[in-house]
Amino acid sequence: MKRASNGRRWLWVILGAGAYGLHLALGKDSALVENVYSRGVFVGLRWLWDRTIGFSPAPLLYVYLAAAVLWAAWAGFRSRGHVPKVHVPGDLGRAHPSAWRKVGRGVLLIASWAGTLVLLFYVLWGFNYNRIGLEKQLRLEVAPVDLAAIKAEAEGTARALAEARALIPGTTKAALADGALPRDLEPAVRSSLSKVLGDAGFPTPGRPRIRPLWPGGLLMRLSSSGFYFPFGGEGYTARNLTASEMPFVTAHEMTHAYGITDEGAANFLGFLACASSADPAVRYSGLLAYWEYVFPELARASDQDAARLAARLPEGVRADIQAAFENWDRYRGPVRAAARAVYERYLKSQGISEGTKSYDRFVSLVVAWKHRSR
After folding, report:
1. Among candidates 370, 368, 374, which has minimal Cα distance to 143?
2. Which of 244, 265, 239, 243 lies closest to 254, judged by CA?
3. CB within 8 Å of 123: residues ≥ 6 apart
4. 151 and 92 part of one domain
5. pLDDT tens profile 161-181
6. pLDDT tens, 24-49?
7. Do 150 and 124 share a domain, yes or no?
8. Same domain assignment for residues 144 and 180
9. Would you say 286 and 266 are in contact if contact means Cβ atoms under 8 Å apart?
Protein backbone atom coordinates (compact mmCIF):
# COMPACT_ATOMS: atom_id res chain seq x y z
CA MET A 1 0.00 0.00 0.00
CA LYS A 2 2.85 2.41 0.81
CA ARG A 3 4.46 1.87 -2.60
CA ALA A 4 1.13 2.46 -4.34
CA SER A 5 0.54 5.60 -2.28
CA ASN A 6 4.01 6.94 -3.06
CA GLY A 7 3.46 6.15 -6.73
CA ARG A 8 0.27 8.22 -6.80
CA ARG A 9 2.05 11.10 -5.10
CA TRP A 10 4.86 11.04 -7.63
CA LEU A 11 2.25 11.03 -10.39
CA TRP A 12 0.77 14.32 -9.13
CA VAL A 13 4.23 15.84 -8.86
CA ILE A 14 4.98 14.87 -12.45
CA LEU A 15 1.61 16.08 -13.75
CA GLY A 16 1.99 19.44 -12.01
CA ALA A 17 5.52 19.90 -13.35
CA GLY A 18 4.31 18.83 -16.78
CA ALA A 19 1.50 21.41 -16.76
CA TYR A 20 3.93 24.20 -15.92
CA GLY A 21 6.39 22.92 -18.50
CA LEU A 22 3.66 22.90 -21.14
CA HIS A 23 2.76 26.48 -20.20
CA LEU A 24 6.39 27.51 -20.75
CA ALA A 25 6.66 25.57 -24.01
CA LEU A 26 3.49 27.09 -25.48
CA GLY A 27 4.68 30.63 -24.82
CA LYS A 28 2.67 33.80 -25.35
CA ASP A 29 0.23 34.48 -28.20
CA SER A 30 -0.47 30.80 -28.81
CA ALA A 31 -3.16 30.28 -31.46
CA LEU A 32 -3.49 26.68 -30.25
CA VAL A 33 -4.36 27.80 -26.73
CA GLU A 34 -6.67 30.54 -28.00
CA ASN A 35 -8.71 28.23 -30.22
CA VAL A 36 -8.65 24.98 -28.26
CA TYR A 37 -8.48 26.05 -24.62
CA SER A 38 -9.60 29.69 -24.19
CA ARG A 39 -12.47 29.48 -26.70
CA GLY A 40 -13.18 25.80 -26.13
CA VAL A 41 -12.25 24.00 -22.92
CA PHE A 42 -12.42 27.08 -20.71
CA VAL A 43 -15.79 28.11 -22.14
CA GLY A 44 -17.15 24.68 -21.19
CA LEU A 45 -15.67 24.95 -17.70
CA ARG A 46 -17.14 28.42 -17.27
CA TRP A 47 -20.58 27.15 -18.31
CA LEU A 48 -20.30 24.15 -15.95
CA TRP A 49 -19.16 26.19 -12.94
CA ASP A 50 -21.90 28.75 -13.24
CA ARG A 51 -24.65 26.14 -13.46
CA THR A 52 -23.42 24.11 -10.49
CA ILE A 53 -21.14 25.46 -7.75
CA GLY A 54 -21.77 29.02 -8.94
CA PHE A 55 -25.15 28.84 -7.20
CA SER A 56 -23.47 28.50 -3.80
CA PRO A 57 -24.93 31.14 -1.45
CA ALA A 58 -21.55 31.42 0.29
CA PRO A 59 -18.23 32.38 -1.32
CA LEU A 60 -16.56 29.15 -2.39
CA LEU A 61 -13.26 30.21 -0.84
CA TYR A 62 -14.96 30.02 2.58
CA VAL A 63 -16.48 26.65 1.72
CA TYR A 64 -13.08 25.24 0.72
CA LEU A 65 -11.38 26.63 3.83
CA ALA A 66 -14.06 25.13 6.06
CA ALA A 67 -13.69 21.77 4.30
CA ALA A 68 -9.90 21.90 4.76
CA VAL A 69 -10.27 22.60 8.49
CA LEU A 70 -12.74 19.74 8.91
CA TRP A 71 -10.47 17.38 6.97
CA ALA A 72 -7.47 18.33 9.10
CA ALA A 73 -9.48 17.82 12.29
CA TRP A 74 -10.69 14.42 11.07
CA ALA A 75 -7.15 13.37 10.10
CA GLY A 76 -5.88 14.46 13.52
CA PHE A 77 -8.63 12.53 15.28
CA ARG A 78 -7.78 9.36 13.33
CA SER A 79 -4.08 9.68 14.08
CA ARG A 80 -4.82 9.63 17.82
CA GLY A 81 -5.71 5.98 17.50
CA HIS A 82 -2.22 5.03 16.33
CA VAL A 83 0.37 4.00 18.86
CA PRO A 84 3.80 5.43 18.00
CA LYS A 85 6.73 3.08 17.78
CA VAL A 86 9.20 3.31 20.68
CA HIS A 87 12.91 2.97 20.00
CA VAL A 88 15.12 1.81 22.83
CA PRO A 89 18.47 3.59 23.29
CA GLY A 90 20.37 0.63 21.84
CA ASP A 91 18.34 0.79 18.65
CA LEU A 92 19.54 4.21 17.44
CA GLY A 93 21.07 2.75 14.30
CA ARG A 94 17.63 1.62 13.12
CA ALA A 95 15.71 4.68 14.33
CA HIS A 96 17.77 7.15 12.29
CA PRO A 97 16.90 5.79 8.83
CA SER A 98 13.26 5.54 9.88
CA ALA A 99 13.25 9.25 10.75
CA TRP A 100 14.71 10.14 7.37
CA ARG A 101 12.06 8.05 5.63
CA LYS A 102 9.35 9.96 7.50
CA VAL A 103 10.88 13.26 6.41
CA GLY A 104 11.04 12.02 2.83
CA ARG A 105 7.40 10.92 2.89
CA GLY A 106 6.42 14.31 4.30
CA VAL A 107 8.28 16.18 1.59
CA LEU A 108 6.73 13.96 -1.09
CA LEU A 109 3.27 14.53 0.36
CA ILE A 110 3.72 18.32 0.22
CA ALA A 111 5.13 18.10 -3.31
CA SER A 112 2.19 15.99 -4.44
CA TRP A 113 -0.30 18.54 -3.09
CA ALA A 114 1.65 21.32 -4.78
CA GLY A 115 1.67 19.38 -8.05
CA THR A 116 -2.08 18.81 -7.81
CA LEU A 117 -2.75 22.53 -7.26
CA VAL A 118 -0.46 23.53 -10.14
CA LEU A 119 -2.18 21.06 -12.49
CA LEU A 120 -5.65 22.25 -11.49
CA PHE A 121 -4.61 25.90 -11.77
CA TYR A 122 -3.58 25.52 -15.41
CA VAL A 123 -6.45 23.24 -16.41
CA LEU A 124 -9.10 25.42 -14.76
CA TRP A 125 -7.78 28.84 -15.81
CA GLY A 126 -4.01 29.29 -16.02
CA PHE A 127 -3.50 28.31 -19.67
CA ASN A 128 -5.30 31.58 -20.53
CA TYR A 129 -1.93 33.23 -19.85
CA ASN A 130 -0.81 31.69 -23.16
CA ARG A 131 -3.67 33.04 -25.25
CA ILE A 132 -3.26 35.64 -27.99
CA GLY A 133 -2.75 39.11 -26.52
CA LEU A 134 -5.50 41.72 -26.49
CA GLU A 135 -3.64 44.10 -28.80
CA LYS A 136 -3.38 41.46 -31.51
CA GLN A 137 -6.97 40.31 -31.12
CA LEU A 138 -8.35 43.86 -31.33
CA ARG A 139 -5.67 45.03 -33.77
CA LEU A 140 -4.68 47.93 -31.56
CA GLU A 141 -1.55 49.87 -32.45
CA VAL A 142 -0.22 50.49 -28.95
CA ALA A 143 2.61 53.00 -28.69
CA PRO A 144 4.16 55.21 -25.99
CA VAL A 145 1.83 58.11 -25.17
CA ASP A 146 3.38 61.55 -25.62
CA LEU A 147 2.80 64.61 -23.41
CA ALA A 148 0.18 66.14 -25.69
CA ALA A 149 -1.89 62.94 -25.62
CA ILE A 150 -1.50 62.62 -21.83
CA LYS A 151 -2.70 66.21 -21.33
CA ALA A 152 -5.68 65.60 -23.60
CA GLU A 153 -6.59 62.38 -21.77
CA ALA A 154 -6.27 64.02 -18.35
CA GLU A 155 -8.36 67.05 -19.30
CA GLY A 156 -11.02 64.94 -20.98
CA THR A 157 -11.18 62.57 -18.01
CA ALA A 158 -11.50 65.49 -15.56
CA ARG A 159 -14.49 66.83 -17.49
CA ALA A 160 -16.10 63.39 -17.73
CA LEU A 161 -15.61 62.82 -13.99
CA ALA A 162 -17.43 66.04 -13.15
CA GLU A 163 -20.29 65.21 -15.52
CA ALA A 164 -20.72 61.62 -14.33
CA ARG A 165 -20.62 62.50 -10.63
CA ALA A 166 -23.20 65.24 -11.10
CA LEU A 167 -25.64 62.63 -12.47
CA ILE A 168 -25.40 60.33 -9.42
CA PRO A 169 -28.58 60.84 -7.39
CA GLY A 170 -28.17 62.37 -3.93
CA THR A 171 -24.49 63.26 -4.22
CA THR A 172 -22.94 65.99 -2.12
CA LYS A 173 -19.44 67.43 -1.82
CA ALA A 174 -18.56 64.56 0.52
CA ALA A 175 -17.10 61.24 -0.65
CA LEU A 176 -19.60 58.81 -2.14
CA ALA A 177 -21.34 56.45 0.27
CA ASP A 178 -22.24 52.84 -0.49
CA GLY A 179 -25.85 53.91 -1.03
CA ALA A 180 -24.81 55.70 -4.21
CA LEU A 181 -24.11 52.36 -5.92
CA PRO A 182 -26.79 50.32 -7.67
CA ARG A 183 -28.22 47.60 -5.43
CA ASP A 184 -27.69 45.06 -8.21
CA LEU A 185 -24.06 46.08 -8.85
CA GLU A 186 -22.80 42.62 -9.83
CA PRO A 187 -25.44 41.89 -12.52
CA ALA A 188 -25.21 45.49 -13.76
CA VAL A 189 -21.46 45.15 -14.27
CA ARG A 190 -21.86 41.68 -15.79
CA SER A 191 -24.39 42.93 -18.33
CA SER A 192 -22.18 45.82 -19.40
CA LEU A 193 -18.97 43.74 -19.49
CA SER A 194 -20.51 40.86 -21.45
CA LYS A 195 -21.61 43.33 -24.13
CA VAL A 196 -18.14 44.90 -24.32
CA LEU A 197 -16.47 41.49 -24.58
CA GLY A 198 -19.03 40.23 -27.07
CA ASP A 199 -18.55 43.27 -29.31
CA ALA A 200 -14.79 42.66 -29.15
CA GLY A 201 -15.25 39.05 -30.26
CA PHE A 202 -14.64 37.29 -26.93
CA PRO A 203 -16.95 34.52 -25.66
CA THR A 204 -18.93 35.39 -22.53
CA PRO A 205 -20.38 32.13 -21.20
CA GLY A 206 -22.09 31.72 -17.85
CA ARG A 207 -22.60 34.22 -15.05
CA PRO A 208 -19.32 34.52 -13.10
CA ARG A 209 -19.67 35.68 -9.52
CA ILE A 210 -17.65 38.49 -7.92
CA ARG A 211 -18.19 38.67 -4.16
CA PRO A 212 -16.92 40.94 -1.37
CA LEU A 213 -14.42 39.16 0.86
CA TRP A 214 -14.43 39.29 4.65
CA PRO A 215 -12.56 40.35 6.74
CA GLY A 216 -12.67 43.66 4.95
CA GLY A 217 -9.05 44.77 5.23
CA LEU A 218 -7.37 41.42 4.61
CA LEU A 219 -6.81 41.87 0.88
CA MET A 220 -5.82 45.51 1.27
CA ARG A 221 -3.12 44.53 3.76
CA LEU A 222 -1.84 42.25 0.99
CA SER A 223 -1.78 45.20 -1.45
CA SER A 224 -4.76 43.87 -3.39
CA SER A 225 -8.18 45.28 -4.17
CA GLY A 226 -9.40 41.90 -5.42
CA PHE A 227 -8.43 38.59 -7.00
CA TYR A 228 -9.79 35.75 -9.11
CA PHE A 229 -9.97 32.29 -7.50
CA PRO A 230 -9.50 29.74 -10.32
CA PHE A 231 -10.33 26.74 -8.11
CA GLY A 232 -13.82 28.07 -7.54
CA GLY A 233 -14.41 29.99 -10.75
CA GLU A 234 -15.29 33.22 -8.95
CA GLY A 235 -13.62 36.49 -8.00
CA TYR A 236 -13.44 38.55 -4.81
CA THR A 237 -13.17 42.23 -4.00
CA ALA A 238 -11.86 43.76 -0.79
CA ARG A 239 -14.92 44.50 1.32
CA ASN A 240 -13.42 47.75 2.66
CA LEU A 241 -13.00 49.47 -0.70
CA THR A 242 -14.64 52.87 -1.01
CA ALA A 243 -17.88 53.15 -2.97
CA SER A 244 -16.14 54.97 -5.81
CA GLU A 245 -13.70 52.07 -6.27
CA MET A 246 -16.01 49.07 -5.99
CA PRO A 247 -17.67 49.02 -9.47
CA PHE A 248 -14.39 49.21 -11.38
CA VAL A 249 -12.70 46.54 -9.23
CA THR A 250 -15.75 44.31 -9.74
CA ALA A 251 -15.48 44.78 -13.52
CA HIS A 252 -11.72 44.12 -13.45
CA GLU A 253 -12.07 40.83 -11.54
CA MET A 254 -15.02 39.75 -13.68
CA THR A 255 -12.84 40.24 -16.76
CA HIS A 256 -10.42 37.72 -15.27
CA ALA A 257 -13.35 35.36 -14.68
CA TYR A 258 -14.08 35.48 -18.41
CA GLY A 259 -10.55 34.27 -19.16
CA ILE A 260 -8.58 37.52 -19.64
CA THR A 261 -5.47 37.10 -17.49
CA ASP A 262 -3.39 40.16 -18.41
CA GLU A 263 -3.77 42.92 -15.80
CA GLY A 264 -3.51 45.81 -18.24
CA ALA A 265 -6.11 44.19 -20.49
CA ALA A 266 -8.41 43.60 -17.49
CA ASN A 267 -8.07 47.29 -16.54
CA PHE A 268 -8.86 48.35 -20.09
CA LEU A 269 -11.87 46.07 -20.58
CA GLY A 270 -13.16 46.82 -17.08
CA PHE A 271 -12.94 50.52 -17.90
CA LEU A 272 -14.89 50.07 -21.15
CA ALA A 273 -17.55 48.10 -19.25
CA CYS A 274 -17.93 50.86 -16.67
CA ALA A 275 -17.84 53.63 -19.28
CA SER A 276 -20.68 52.01 -21.25
CA SER A 277 -22.87 51.38 -18.20
CA ALA A 278 -26.25 53.07 -17.91
CA ASP A 279 -25.60 53.73 -14.22
CA PRO A 280 -23.69 57.00 -13.57
CA ALA A 281 -22.02 55.65 -10.40
CA VAL A 282 -20.56 52.74 -12.37
CA ARG A 283 -19.41 55.09 -15.15
CA TYR A 284 -17.86 57.40 -12.57
CA SER A 285 -15.95 54.54 -10.93
CA GLY A 286 -14.37 53.54 -14.24
CA LEU A 287 -13.38 57.13 -15.01
CA LEU A 288 -11.90 57.60 -11.54
CA ALA A 289 -9.81 54.44 -11.95
CA TYR A 290 -8.55 55.71 -15.30
CA TRP A 291 -7.75 59.10 -13.74
CA GLU A 292 -5.56 57.38 -11.16
CA TYR A 293 -3.36 56.13 -14.01
CA VAL A 294 -3.51 59.21 -16.27
CA PHE A 295 -2.86 61.86 -13.62
CA PRO A 296 0.48 60.42 -12.37
CA GLU A 297 1.67 60.28 -15.99
CA LEU A 298 0.81 63.96 -16.39
CA ALA A 299 2.45 64.84 -13.07
CA ARG A 300 5.69 63.12 -14.10
CA ALA A 301 5.73 65.07 -17.36
CA SER A 302 4.53 68.46 -16.09
CA ASP A 303 4.00 69.28 -12.41
CA GLN A 304 2.44 72.65 -13.22
CA ASP A 305 -0.14 71.27 -15.65
CA ALA A 306 -1.03 68.53 -13.18
CA ALA A 307 -1.45 70.97 -10.29
CA ARG A 308 -3.67 73.30 -12.34
CA LEU A 309 -5.87 70.45 -13.52
CA ALA A 310 -6.20 68.90 -10.06
CA ALA A 311 -7.28 72.27 -8.63
CA ARG A 312 -10.11 72.45 -11.19
CA LEU A 313 -11.60 69.10 -10.15
CA PRO A 314 -14.97 69.41 -8.39
CA GLU A 315 -14.80 69.21 -4.61
CA GLY A 316 -16.73 65.93 -4.57
CA VAL A 317 -14.25 64.25 -6.93
CA ARG A 318 -11.35 65.41 -4.78
CA ALA A 319 -13.17 64.04 -1.72
CA ASP A 320 -13.46 60.60 -3.36
CA ILE A 321 -9.76 60.60 -4.27
CA GLN A 322 -8.78 61.62 -0.75
CA ALA A 323 -11.11 59.04 0.85
CA ALA A 324 -9.56 56.24 -1.22
CA PHE A 325 -6.02 57.41 -0.37
CA GLU A 326 -6.75 57.57 3.36
CA ASN A 327 -8.50 54.19 3.26
CA TRP A 328 -5.51 52.47 1.62
CA ASP A 329 -3.10 54.26 3.93
CA ARG A 330 -4.66 52.44 6.89
CA TYR A 331 -3.31 49.14 5.59
CA ARG A 332 0.30 50.03 4.85
CA GLY A 333 3.03 47.85 6.35
CA PRO A 334 5.70 45.21 5.71
CA VAL A 335 3.15 42.54 4.82
CA ARG A 336 1.84 44.71 2.01
CA ALA A 337 5.32 45.27 0.58
CA ALA A 338 6.12 41.55 0.79
CA ALA A 339 2.84 40.66 -0.94
CA ARG A 340 3.66 43.00 -3.83
CA ALA A 341 7.07 41.34 -4.24
CA VAL A 342 5.49 37.87 -4.30
CA TYR A 343 2.88 38.95 -6.86
CA GLU A 344 5.63 40.48 -8.99
CA ARG A 345 7.39 37.11 -9.10
CA TYR A 346 4.11 35.30 -9.82
CA LEU A 347 3.31 37.49 -12.84
CA LYS A 348 6.80 37.04 -14.26
CA SER A 349 6.55 33.26 -13.79
CA GLN A 350 3.44 33.35 -16.02
CA GLY A 351 5.35 35.00 -18.86
CA ILE A 352 4.42 38.63 -18.09
CA SER A 353 7.88 40.17 -18.22
CA GLU A 354 6.64 43.60 -17.09
CA GLY A 355 5.37 42.12 -13.81
CA THR A 356 3.09 44.55 -11.96
CA LYS A 357 3.97 47.26 -14.50
CA SER A 358 1.58 45.46 -16.85
CA TYR A 359 -1.21 47.37 -15.07
CA ASP A 360 0.27 50.58 -16.51
CA ARG A 361 -0.59 49.55 -20.08
CA PHE A 362 -4.09 50.74 -19.20
CA VAL A 363 -3.54 54.28 -20.55
CA SER A 364 -1.81 53.25 -23.77
CA LEU A 365 -4.57 50.73 -24.50
CA VAL A 366 -7.31 53.33 -24.01
CA VAL A 367 -5.49 55.84 -26.24
CA ALA A 368 -4.97 53.19 -28.94
CA TRP A 369 -8.64 52.23 -28.72
CA LYS A 370 -9.75 55.85 -29.16
CA HIS A 371 -7.45 56.28 -32.15
CA ARG A 372 -8.84 53.13 -33.77
CA SER A 373 -12.44 54.22 -33.15
CA ARG A 374 -12.02 57.59 -34.89
Report:
1. 368
2. 265
3. 19
4. no
5. 999 999 999 889 999 999 999
6. 999 999 999 999 999 999 999 999 99
7. no
8. yes
9. no
